[in-house]
C-alpha cells in the first residue's frame, strides 16, 4: 500500500513538472523576436530545443491555435547533399541561430554547396554560391549577375533577402519549364559579406576593425580624398571610416576578388533603409539595357523610387560602376526591421528575377578608361 501511494505521488509530481516545462517552452516559442539587439548567447542549443518543440507540437496539433505563429518552413529542392567543410558547417549553425532569433525560420544553410576561400578578421567564412557554368563563362561571356548582401552588418533585412533569393533560385533552376531561361545565366550570391558586424550582440555598420567596407574599395581618388573627405565632409563620423588604406579589409578584398574572378555584367548590392534603387555605371545613352532594367526593377516593385544617389570615394558604386563600367544597382530596402523581411521579399522578388534574367552583355562595349556620367534620375523616372 505504502509503495502504491509513493508511485501515485511520484506520477502526479512528474506530470506537474512536465506541464510546467511544456508551458515554459511553449510560451517562449510563441514569442516573435523583434529586436536586432538580442543576445545570441541566450540561444544555446536552439537546434535541440526546436526539434523537441516540434515533437510536442505534433502531438498537440489540433488543440493548439498558436502553432500558426511558428516560423515558416519552406521546402527546399536540392539534387544532392552538399559537402561542407567543418568550418562552414559550424558557421551554418551560427546562421541558423541568428535566423531563429530574428523569427526567420530555418536558413537551410547546410543544404547549399558553399564556396569559401577567405575569412573575416574573426575567422568567419566569407561564403558565396554559384549557379551556372563558370568554365563556359570564361570562354563565352554569359549573362553574369553578382549579388551582395549584408555589406553593413546593422542592415538586417538584406541578409534574409539574400537567403530568399537563394531559395528562389534553387526552386526555379530545377523547374523544367525554366530550363531555357537559366541556360545562359551565371549567378553569384554572397549573402553575408560582413559577418563580424552582423553577428555582434549589437550589430554595427562598420566591420570588426571599425572600417566602413563600402568606403574601402580602391577607387582612383582614394589616396587623395578618402581620409580628407571623411574628416571634412563626415566630421570623422565613425560609422563611415574608410580605413587607413584602400583595400585593407578582408570583406573588401572578398568583393573585389569575386568581381575580378567572375567578371559580372551587373552587380546588385542590397542595403537598407534608404527606400530607393540607385544606379552607378555607364550612362544610359551607352547602356540602354542597363537603364531599362533600372526602370523595370522599379516597376516590378510597384514603382519603387529610383534615386541618383551620389557615389563615394571608396564605394562599390564608384569602383565597379563608375570606374569599371559594370552596371551596379544598389537596392535599399525600406527598413532594417527583421519582422518585415517576408514582406520585402514579396515586394522585390520580381525585380530580382528581372535583374537576373536581363542580359546586359550588349551594353558593355564601352572602351576601358572612357569616362562615365551618373545617370540622371529625373530623366529616368
Ligand atoms: Zn548600407
Task: Determine the CATH topology of the largest domain.
Answer: Aminopeptidase
Number of helices: 13
What is the number of E strands? 7
Measured on Cα atoms, how large is the radius of gyration? 24 Å
Main β-sheet, in a few words?
Answer: 7 strands, mixed
Which CATH class of the largest domain is shown?
Alpha Beta
The CATH architecture term of the largest domain is: 3-Layer(aba) Sandwich
Number of domains: 2
The arrangement of helices and strands along the chain is HHHEEHEHHEHHHEEHHEHH
Distance between the termini: 87 Å
In this entry the ligands are: zinc ion
Overall morphology: globular
Q: How would you state the average pLDDT, rounded?
A: 82
Please state how the strands of the largest beta sheet are arranged side by side: 1-2-4-3-5-7-6
Strand content: 5-15%
Assigned CATH superfamily of the largest domain: Zn peptidases
Give unreliable regions as ranges. 7-70, 365-381
Helix content: 40-55%
- Class from helix and strand fractions: alpha/beta
Could you explain the architecture of this structure?
This protein is globular. The model is unreliable at 7-70 and 365-381 (pLDDT under 50). Helices cover 41% and strands 11% of the residues. It folds into 2 domains: 20-69, no CATH class; 86-380, 3-Layer(aba) Sandwich (Aminopeptidase). Strand 1 (115-119) and strand 2 form a beta hairpin. With 381 residues, it is of the alpha/beta class. 40% of the residues are buried. Helix 5 crosses helix 12 (341-357) and helix 10 (288-300) runs antiparallel to helix 12 (341-357). It has helices at residues 2-30, 46-59, 86-101, 134-139, 157-173, 179-183, 195-198, 222-232, 250-262, 288-300, 316-322, 341-357, 377-380, and strands spanning 115-119, 125-131, 143-149, 185-190, 266-271, 276-280, 328-332. Strands 1-2-4-3-5-7-6 form a 7-stranded mixed beta sheet, sandwiched between helices. The protein binds zinc ion. Zinc ion binds at residues 151-152, 155, 271.
Amino acid at each position: 500500500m505504502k509503495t502504491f501511494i509513493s508511485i501515485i505521488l511520484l506520477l502526479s509530481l512528474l506530470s506537474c513538472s512536465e506541464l510546467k516545462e511544456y508551458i515554459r517552452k511553449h510560451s517562449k516559442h510563441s514569442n516573435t523576436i523583434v529586436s536586432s539587439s538580442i543576445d545570441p548567447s541566450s540561444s544555446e542549443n536552439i537546434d535541440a530545443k526546436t526539434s523537441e518543440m516540434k515533437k510536442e507540437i505534433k502531438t498537440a496539433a489540433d488543440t493548439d491555435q498558436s502553432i500558426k505563429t511558428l516560423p515558416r518552413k519552406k521546402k527546399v529542392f536540392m539534387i544532392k547533399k552538399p559537402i561542407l567543410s567543418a568550418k562552414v558547417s559550424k558557421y551554418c549553425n551560427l546562421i541558423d541561430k541568428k535566423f531563429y532569433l530574428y523569427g526567420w525560420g530555418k536558413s537551410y544553410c547546410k543544404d547549399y554547396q558553399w564556396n569559401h576561400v577567405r575569412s573575416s578578421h574573426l575567422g568567419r567564412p566569407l561564403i558565396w554560391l554559384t549557379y551556372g557554368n563558370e568554365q563556359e563563362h570564361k570562354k563565352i561571356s554569359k549573362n553574369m549577375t553578382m549579388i551582395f548582401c549584408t555589406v553593413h552588418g546593422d542592415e538586417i533585412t538584406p541578409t534574409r533577402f539574400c537567403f530568399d533569393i537563394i531559395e528562389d533560385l534553387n526552386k526555379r533552376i530545377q523547374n523544367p519549364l525554366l530550363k531555357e531561361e537559366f541556360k545562359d545565366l551565371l549567378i553569384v550570391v554572397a549573402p553575408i559579406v560582413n559577418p563580424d558586424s552582423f553577428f555582434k550582440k549589437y550589430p554595427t555598420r562598420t566591420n570588426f576593425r571599425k572600417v566602413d567596407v563600402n568606403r574601402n574599395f580602391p577607387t582612383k581618388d582614394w589616396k587623395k580624398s578618402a581620409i580628407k573627405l571623411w574628416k571634412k565632409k563626415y566630421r570623422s563620423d565613425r560609422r563611415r571610416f574608410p580605413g587607413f588604406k584602400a583595400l585593407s579589409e578582408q570583406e573588401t578584398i572578398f568583393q573585389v576578388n569575386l568581381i575580378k574572378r567572375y567578371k559580372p555584367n551587373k552587380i546588385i548590392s542590397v542595403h537598407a533603409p534608404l527606400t530607393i534603387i540607385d544606379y552607378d555605371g555607364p550612362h544610359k545613352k551607352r547602356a540602354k539595357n542597363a537603364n531599362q532594367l533600372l526602370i523595370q526593377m522599379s516597376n516590378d516593385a510597384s514603382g519603387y523610387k529610383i534615386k541618383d544617389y551620389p557615389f563615394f570615394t571608396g564605394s562599390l558604386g564608384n569602383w565597379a560602376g563608375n570606374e569599371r563600367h559594370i552596371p551596379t544597382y544598389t537596392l535599399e530596402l525600406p527598413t532594417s526591421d527583421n519582422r518585415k523581411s517576408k514582406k520585402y521579399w514579396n515586394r522585390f522578388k520580381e525585380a530580382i528575377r528581372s535583374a537576373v534574367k536581363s542580359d546586359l552583355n550588349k551594353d558593355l562595349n564601352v572602351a576601358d578608361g572612357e569616362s562615365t556620367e551618373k545617370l540622371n534620375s529625373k530623366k529616368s523616372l
